[in-house]
Amino acid sequence: MNTEIIINVLLILGLANGAPILAARIFGDWFATPIDRGRVASDGFPWLGSSKTWRGILAACLLALPIALWLDFRLSEAFMMIGLSMLGDLSSSFIKRRRGMVSSSRAIGLDQIPEAALPVIYLWAMEHLSAVEGLVIVLLFIVVEVIVSKMLFHLHIRKRPY
C-alpha cells in the first residue's frame, strides 16, 4: 500500500472541499451566486441549495490545484480529482434536497462518500490507486471530514459543527 498517494489524495480532497467553506467565511455574500440560481425543482425544493455557489467551485480549484501540481499530479489529473470531488458534493446536495433536507444539513456518509469516491474511482481507473488504497482514502476522508468540521465550527469558521 502506497501511503504517500493516500496522503496526497486526502490532502487534495480536503483542500477542495474545505475551500468553499473558507471562501464563504472570508468573502461573506460577495460572489456567492448559487449554482442553481435559486431555482426550485418540481418537488418544491431547490435543485442544490444556496450554499452551493460558483465561488465555492472557483475556491476549490484555486486552493487545491496548485497543491496538486506541487505534489506532482498532472494538470489533467488534478482537474479531474477536484472536479469529480465537487461533482460528488453537488450530487449529495441534489439528493439531500430531493429528500427535503435543507442546505448544510447533516447526512453522514452521503456528505462525504460521493466527493471522495468519484475521484478515487477515476484514480483507480487510471491505475494510480489499488482498490484497497481507494477504500482507505474514502474511509479516512469520512473520519477526517467529520473531525475537521467540528474543529472549524469551534474556530468559528463553520456555522454548524458538521
Summary?
The chain is an all-alpha fold. Helix content is 64%, strand content 0%.
Number of discrete helical segments: 5
Indicate the radius of gyration in whole angstroms: 15 Å
Shape: globular
Q: What value does the average pLDDT take?
A: 91
For the structure shown, list the relevant keywords.
mainly alpha; 5 helices; 162 residues; globular
Outline the structure in words.
The protein is mostly helical and 162 residues long. The chain has one domain (3-154). The chain is built from 5 helices and no strands.
Topology readout:
Elements: H1 3-27, H2 54-70, H3 75-98, H4 113-125, H5 131-154
